[in-house]
Structure to design on (183 residues):
């Protein structure tokens, strides 16, 4: 079994290495799993690209993609997804918003036969600003209205999916992808 992690990176020069170290540490719990991490620099204005390249120089599991301009989180996720080779793919953030320590819980539904799993957080666990929470709620209302998303399905950035779902998502060739809508 091989896991592919996809991390879109923007303004995370001070956090992304810690996230990579969390993944590396977590993967020691299951030595039977191979893994890779694909990071996508979404033309970040900080030095995250240099940080990623320095880290990749001594860590074979890391691949670094550098986008020519800022295309947005979902386009960065698509770029990373196109480079995965794992049986299962995990999307996560570059800034500690996704609890890597709960990785095996996130993957459990896939083991049970589901194709996609979203992490659910208690509201107390969220580390986001008021405006980000407000934006998330507006996004959720639009998804319910436009995409018929069930109201009890909470969409987060900590997602696991099987590789055949990734192959289907990559069939989308238009600009401005919306990963949650494609899922």
């Amino acid at each position: 079994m091989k896991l592919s992690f996809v991390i879109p990176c923007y303004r995370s020069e001070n956090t992304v290495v810690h996230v990579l170290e969390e993944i590396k540490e977590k993967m020691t719990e299951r030595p039977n799993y191979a893994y890779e991490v694909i990071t996508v620099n979404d033309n970040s204005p900080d030095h995250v690209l240099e940080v990623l390249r320095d880290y990749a120089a001594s860590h074979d599991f890391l691949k670094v993609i550098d986008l020519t301009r800022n295309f947005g989180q979902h386009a960065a996720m698509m770029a990373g997804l196109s480079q995965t080779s794992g049986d299962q793919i995990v999307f996560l953030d570059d800034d500690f918003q996704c609890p890597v320590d709960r990785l095996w819980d996130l993957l459990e539904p896939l083991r049970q036969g589901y194709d996609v799993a979203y992490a659910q957080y208690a509201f107390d666990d969220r580390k986001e600003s008021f405006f980000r929470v407000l934006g998330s709620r507006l996004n959720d209302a639009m998804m319910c209205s436009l995409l018929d998303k069930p109201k009890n399905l909470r969409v987060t950035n900590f997602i696991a999916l099987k590789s055949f779902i990734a192959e289907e998502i990559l069939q989308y060739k238009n600009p401005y992808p919306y990963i949650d809508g494609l899922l």
